[in-house]
Give the backbone structure.
Amino acid sequence: GQQVMQIPQYQHVQEGEDFTTYCNSSTTLSNIQWYKQRPGGHPVFLIQLVKSGEVKKQKRLTFQFGEAKKNSSLHITATQTTDVGTYFCFMTTDSWGKFQFGAGTQVVVTP
Amino acid sequence: NAGVTQTPKFQVLKTGQSMTLQCAQDMNHNSMYWYRQDPGMGLRLIYYSASEGTTDKGEVPNGYNVSRLNKREFSLRLESAAPSQTSVYFCASSELGSTWGNQPQHFGDGTRLSIL
């Protein structure tokens, strides 16, 4: 079956620092989505990546899809307290019905 | 425009009791999903419905049943609640894309369920 790993599980960041979270799959993906969940809230869609090597940016967030379409990263520049939350990747394989959320990276930001 | 609405928001049950979690969306989406979220385990898919009239098992379907009542509504039923089903339950909906998972999912606010 599809194996999905999201690392790190927990990230403590000083305000102003950069950090990166990664999602890795054992199988080739058709696309990947990223979601953010604020404490006590529900997941909110951020972005979708489809093409091999694709890079998309949203202000201080940079999303990348690996060349082999087996991994993805989310990089946040100059972290702010508003970045607090858990970031999830959602991976879909080429087979129908094969999709899964990663376990998430919980981000804590200290001023 | 309410999006995805879940009821109730909170519920406490005793072991063995039954209950139904309700979910409705007003975005005219074809696909709907039920997830459970436990600490450190992300979101695990319980059941999903690609379109009205169809339902399929997800990763953790045991102990649950679902009904896709119409295009708007997708309910989740616990027939005999167990403490292991204590969790936060999220309903989501999306368009039905050309392949699975290539449309954004819109989530409700969740139901926090405790089983004693």
